[in-house]
Design a protein that fits this description.
- By secondary structure, the protein is α/β, with parallel strands linked by helices.
- It folds into three domains: about 5-65, Up-down Bundle (Transferase, Pyrimidine Nucleoside Phosphorylase, Chain A, domain 3), CATH 1.20.970; about 80-325, Pyrimidine Nucleoside Phosphorylase, Chain A, domain 2 (3-Layer(aba) Sandwich), CATH 3.40.1030; about 330-420, Aldehyde Oxidoreductase, domain 3.
- The chain has 17 helices and twelve strands.
- It has a four-stranded mixed β-sheet, with helices on both faces. The chain has a three-stranded antiparallel β-sheet with strand order 6-10-8. The protein has a three-stranded antiparallel β-sheet with strand order 9-7-11.
- Helix 10 (about 215-230) links the parallel strand 4 (about 195-205) and strand 5.
- The longest helix has 17 residues, at about 215-230.
- The two termini are about 40 Å apart.
- About 55% of the residues are buried.
């Protein structure tokens, strides 16, 4: 039978349910070029308006996974695990979670991304480390995962290439916010990484792509049902992003924050709890024997997780003494100044997205994919909800390239913070979506 992309588009446009073969043929055509960009855009818009059943979402995810290489880690003696976050501000969890899992005997081949919109990207954080390569060849990637237990890198050209094509078109056709398409985009890459267990950190609140709990839950449930339907044991935690997760937002500043976390010199409480909860959840998914949380804490307090992080940085081209020489290796911004409160009160609300966009405006993020970024800039010492301040109390510290940019960055902080009599309570762990029973 002749493959006609327009027939598949029309079927979905009219509310029909696509078969796995139809979805597979369309994605194969997208990858080969047999499906045009216009047809891909029409397909994405049809899915956006007509949605997809769970079986269709599974079929789309598997077809996108199979558009490229699927890694095989069957030679490793421990579970192959990973975490994915839907993105937030001050979210550097991956930098600690991967070595903490490795210290507990897991293997973490983490395929990460760059910043998107107001949210920071894990790869951009690692680019602030001199020499660290986020694009190693496959042989080095496998060696580091096997020898160190974790490697955090970027998506390679042969992992789910259909996702790159489809996402680029979604980005310019107002179809990014489709839950079926988001689900397939995230999970096709994770399935291609050859994982045995995955924990999803779905953010909710003012700094999340899904700002309401209802929308966050819908995305989490889609991801969990599709991942398990595709054969990957997966659960999700819905976590709060109504304030930055760490007290730092900005690439080098978040790396410093992560190293301080691993050494024990400073640990933000909210960050500590979310990191432990995610790591323990994915260890439990793997069938870990014993108390997963207690084992993770032992690995952290003993220095074993720090050692894994240090070895990973060195093995991927960074300085082998990065942890000890962090002050030499992480460049500082030329202008560093406090942003102070002008009146008295309690921090009652934080527009977290505004803080993220403040980092972008300072030069720490991108407005176009081709933009270069300055890893030095951003904020640290960010106060959280409920903190009591008076005139002159620092709300945050801005790191900028120029005095004018520092003032603009300070204005973003003042716009993001609202003082009042009291702060609302936002549960840090808003909900859990477990894997289906059976």
């Amino acid at each position: 039978m002749t493959f006609l992309p327009q027939e598949i588009i029309a079927k979905k446009r009219d509310g029909g349910t696509l078969t796995p073969d139809e979805i597979g043929a369309f994605i194969a055509g997208l990858t080969s070029g047999a499906v045009s960009p216009a047809q891909t855009a029409a397909f994405a818009m049809a899915v956006y308006f007509r949605d997809m059943a769970v079986a269709e979402r599974v079929g789309l995810t598997l077809a996108m996974r199979d558009s490229g290489t699927v890694l095989d880690w069957s030679d490793l003696p421990g579970p192959v695990l990973d975490k994915h976050s839907t993105g937030g501000v001050g979210d550097n969890v991956s930098l600690m979670l991967a070595p903490m899992l490795a210290a507990c005997g897991a293997y973490v081949p983490m395929i990460s991304g760059r910043g998107l919109g107001h949210t920071g990207g894990t790869l951009d954080k690692f680019d602030s480390i001199p020499g660290y390569t986020t694009a190693p060849d496959n042989a080095l990637f496998r060696t580091v995962v096997r020898d160190v237990g974790c490697a955090i890198i970027g998506q390679t050209a042969d992992l789910a290439p259909a996702d790159k094509v489809l996402y680029a078109i979604r980005d310019v056709t107002a179809t990014v916010e489709s839950i079926p398409l988001i689900t397939a985009s995230i999970l096709s890459k994770k399935l291609a990484a050859g994982l045995q267990g995955l924990i999803l950190d779905v953010k909710t609140g003012s700094g999340a792509f899904m700002p309401t709990l209802e929308k966050s839950r819908a995305l989490a449930e889609s991801l969990v049902s599709v991942a398990n339907g595709a054969g990957l044991r997966t659960a999700a935690l819905i976590t709060d992003m109504n304030e930055p997760l760490a007290t730092a937002a900005g690439n080098a500043l978040e790396v410093r924050n992560a190293v301080d976390f691993l050494t024990g010199s400073h640990r933000d409480l909210r960050l500590y709890e979310v990191t432990l909860a995610l790591a323990a959840a994915v260890l439990d998914l793997s069938g870990f024997r014993g108390d997963a949380r207690a084992a993770l804490i032992r690995g952290l307090e003993s220095g074993a997780a720090l050692e894994r992080f240090s070895r990973m940085v060195g093995a991927l081209g960074g300085p082998r003494d990065f942890v000890e020489g962090m002050d030499r290796y992480l460049a500082a911004a030329p202008v560093i100044r406090d942003v102070v409160a002008e009146t008295s009160g309690t921090i009652a609300d934080i527009d977290t997205r505004t803080i993220g966009m403040g980092v972008v405006a300072l030069g720490g993020g991108r407005t176009r994919p081709t933009d270069s970024i300055d890893h030095r800039v951003g904020y640290d010492r960010l106060l959280g909800l409920g903190a009591k301040v008076g005139p002159g109390t620092p709300l945050a510290r801005v790191h900028a390239r120029t005095a004018d940019e520092a003032e603009a960055g300070a204005a973003a902080i003042r716009a993001a913070y609202r003082l009042g009599d009291a702060a609302p309570h936002h549960p840090l762990l808003a909900a859990t979506v477990p894997p289906p029973k059976g």
